[in-house]
């Protein structure tokens, strides 16, 4: 679909509803925990703070019609509900892409466009997410992480399935699925946090308030 798609001549493109999957806190971000730098309780607090900052920033981005978290973690479910964020349980509990496909199916009958955003973007700036969504137009698109191998954002074409291909080498997998790479100067959108080095990079960009307090 081209950026001048005739279906959206006057009002621009439909807003995207972003699915944000998060593992149960005690299982999430094991590579950060393996660094041994913090106590398990501090680790879960940090992972929760990162997810909350990510979602909070995403909700404030132009072009985002809503954010729906996919998780079975009870602490996260309560925290997001308190923020007024819709939460879907993790089904069929068969990994990240299965959870996203399930969320896509749950949403697509009631929204025009679905996307997926990683939950580990603690420096995310709403203006950078908005700029990436704008650059996507109505095309199936993805934003590679700062290493160029992973994916932080995937946008389906309006009315089309998300067809997520997250996992090792997902940037190539998404490009191979016909998605357009979004390669603008959006450091905060590209800085997902898997390791202590990633966390330092995010800190240099400026952490969200909950993450800043947790580190
Ligand atoms: N709901 C849900 N989210 C998942 C699942 N697997 C991964 N995620 C989330 O998807 C995002 C990307 O996953 P990774 O970057 O590999 O994060 P992770 O699995 O927590 O990290 P590692 O343990 O270090 O591999 C993270 O926010 C995870 O919490 C899953 O099976 N269900
Ligand atoms: C699952 C992914 O995240 P990460 O590479 O951070 O594990 C991905 O980028 O597809």
UniProtKB/TrEMBL annotation:
Molecular function via GO: GTP binding; phospholactate guanylyltransferase activity
Pathway membership, UniProt: Cofactor biosynthesis; coenzyme F420 biosynthesis
Pfam families listed in its UniProt record: CofC (PF01983)
EC number from the UniProt entry: 2.7.7.105
InterPro entries: CofC, Nucleotide-diphossugar_trans
Positions with a binding annotation for phosphoenolpyruvate: 151, 167, 170
Reactions catalysed, as given in the entry: phosphoenolpyruvate + GTP + H(+) = enolpyruvoyl-2-diphospho-5'-guanosine + diphosphate
Alphabetic keyword roster: GTP-binding, Nucleotide-binding, Nucleotidyltransferase, Transferase
Top-tier EC class: transferase
Ranges in a coiled coil: none
GO terms of biological process kind: F420-0 metabolic process
Stretches for region Disordered: 156-179
Family under the similarity heading: Belongs to the CofC family.
Role description: Guanylyltransferase that catalyzes the activation of phosphoenolpyruvate (PEP) as enolpyruvoyl-2-diphospho-5'-guanosine, via the condensation of PEP with GTP. It is involved in the biosynthesis of coenzyme F420, a hydride carrier cofactor.
UniProt name for this protein: Phosphoenolpyruvate guanylyltransferase
The species this protein was found in: Saccharopolyspora hordei
């Amino acid at each position: 679909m081209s950026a001048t798609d005739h279906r959206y001549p006057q009002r621009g493109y439909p807003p995207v509803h972003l699915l944000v999957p998060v593992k149960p806190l005690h299982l999430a971000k094991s590579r950060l925990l393996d660094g041994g730098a913090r106590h398990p309780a501090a680790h879960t607090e940090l992972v929760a703070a990162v997810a909350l900052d990510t979602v909070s920033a995403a909700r404030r981005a132009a072009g985002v019609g809503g954010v729906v978290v996919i998780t079975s973690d009870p602490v996260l479910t309560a925290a997001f509900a308190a923020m007024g964020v819709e939460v879907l349980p993790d089904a069929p509990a068969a990994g990240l892409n299965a959870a996203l496909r399930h969320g896509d199916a749950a949403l697509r009958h009631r929204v025009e466009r679905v996307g997926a955003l990683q939950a580990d973007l603690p420096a995310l700036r709403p203006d950078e997410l908005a700029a990436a969504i704008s650059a996507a137009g109505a095309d199936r698109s993805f934003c590679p992480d700062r290493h160029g191998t992973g994916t932080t954002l995937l946008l389906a074409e309006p009315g089309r399935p998300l067809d997520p291909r997250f996992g090792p080498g997902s940037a190539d997998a998404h490009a191979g699925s016909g998605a357009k790479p979004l390669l603008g100067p959006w450091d905060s959108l590209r800085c997902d946090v898997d390791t202590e080095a990633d966390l330092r990079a995010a800190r240099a960009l400026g952490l969200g308030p909950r993450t800043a307090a947790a580190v």
